């Protein structure tokens, strides 16, 4: 949460709400206006850069998928934070 707090305190408050919620946007394909995409990338990459540099200073090597999980959760936090500005719709996948 420190990386999010450094980015923007308002997102930090949303991240705390996110941890208590059942909201999780588990999709990796989406359509979004360019301005929201750039805003989303700015948020996600500034936070992941902070986390990456944090682990770089430790004498441990992360070989798991922690960065992938982190980005999925940051996307969910971004969408939750901007739910009043961005229309969100999902479609269930039908398996054959």
Which secondary structure elements does this structure contain, and how are they paired or packed?
Elements: H1 2-7, H2 9-20, H3 34-56, H4 66-81
Helix pairs in contact: 2-4, 3-4
List keywords for this structure.
mainly alpha; 4 helices
Report on the architecture of this protein:
The protein has 96 residues and is mainly alpha-helical. It is 59% helix and 0% strand. The mean pLDDT is 85.
Short précis:
The chain has 96 residues and is mainly α. It has helices at 2-7, 9-20, 34-56, 66-81.
Overall mean pLDDT stands at: 85
Structural classification: mainly alpha
Gross morphology: globular
What's the N-to-C terminus distance? Answer: 40 Å
What proportion of the residues form beta strands (DSSP E)? under 5%
User: How many strands, which pairing sense, and closed or not: the largest β-sheet?
Assistant: none
SSE ordering: HHHH
- pLDDT below 50 for ≥5 consecutive residues: which ranges? none
Rg from alpha-carbon coordinates: 15 Å
What is the overall number of helices? 4
Tell me roughly what share of residues is in helical segments.
Answer: 55-70%
Total number of beta strands: 0
